[in-house]
Amino acid sequence: MTDFEDRYWTSGDGLRLHFRLYDGDSTRPPVICLPGLTRNARDFEDLAARLAGKWRVLCPEMRGRGDSDYAKDPMTYQPLQYLQDVEALLAQEGIERFVAIGTSLGGLLTMLLAIRNPDRIAAAVLNDIGPEVSAAGLERIRGYVGQGRNFETWMHAARALQESSGDVYPDWEITDWLRYAKRIMALGTGGRIAFDYDMKIAEPFEAPQGAAPQVDMWPMFDALAMRPLLVLRGETSDILEPHVAAKMAARPGVELLTLPRIGHVPTLDEAESIAAIERLLERVV
Fold first, then answer.
1. Structure letter (DSSP) for residue 70
2. Are 74 and 46 in contact (CB under 8 A)?
3. Cβ-proximal residues to 70 (8 Å cutoff; 6+ apart), any chain
4. Spatial separation of the C-alpha atoms in residues 170 and 126, rounded to whole Å
5. For the chain, N or C: smaller number of CB within 10 Å?
């Protein structure tokens, strides 16, 4: 596994937030990997290791996830606050232009970053997310976020994930589920294994409008125009529907890759995903 440096930045409201930094060619725009709602920097560990050396890679953890501080006010667990947090990271690191790889929520943040300042996006990957989010998928997310289950062993955790998410990754073996568990969970108090995020991130979903932006997001997507753009979609995704993905792919310069027998979300470890990301990076100038 390629070495990385654990680093930190400070949010506008004083939280100490964590990111992994993988060293690489400083003459190229860095790659910034933005994780999904309940996820952390470990989601990108294999991809970042693969890109490191040729590219500097930053893997930030949003407030309330991984090694980042938990928020004092749970209602700050929402996209516009995450946007401000990421912009504080960019300012600290002196990053003016970058490649964004955004999974789910991270893809929403990529579009928000683009509409705020399109020139800073050198290229982007939107992983199983688009400017329209399926209502059924959002309802499923509301059903599981903040459910604080914990487990005695990693095998118990892996079996529980297999039971709850087997339809998302139907071809996985138990070794895959163990690896997945160690990405999204951590050893907590009392020696129990638990999900590696603040359960209070669920609270904004209880508000009438939920935690997703209630605006027309197509202008945000179109802010990514005229630059290399890859859209990844799991074939059975309940978040990015086929007709939305097709509409995205109709924009000039967009490559759409649908990964068979995968739901929400592709892990970015798939051979097809890796090849597509490498094709995208070859187009970065």
1. P
2. no
3. 63, 64, 198, 200
4. 23
5. N
**187 Cβ contact list (under 8 Å, min separation 6):** 193
CA neighbours closer than 13 Å in the CB half-sphere of residue 80: 6
C-alpha to C-alpha distance for 94 and 215, rounded to whole angstroms? 30
Q: Of the candidates 6, 106, 14, 148, which has an alpha carbon nearest to the alpha carbon of residue 69?
A: 14
CA distances from 168 to 131, 146, 267 (A): 22, 20, 11
List pLDDT tens digits, range 132-179. 999 999 888 888 888 878 999 999 999 999 999 999 999 999 999 999
Tokens of 108: 């929403």
Q: What does the pLDDT look like over 2-54, one tens digit per residue?
A: 699 999 999 999 999 999 999 999 999 999 999 999 999 999 999 999 999 99
Of 181, 128, 190, nearest in space to 155 by CA: 181
Rounded Cα–Cα distance for residues 90 and 92 (Å): 6
Q: How far is CA 241 from CA 128, 135, 232, 234, in A?
A: 9, 10, 12, 9
Instruction: Please list, in sequence order, all residues whose beta carbon lies within 8 angstroms of the beta carbon of residue 170, skipping any fewer than 6 positions away.
Output: 261
- Domains in the chain, start-ordered, CATH in brackets? 5-146+215-282 (3.40.50.1820)
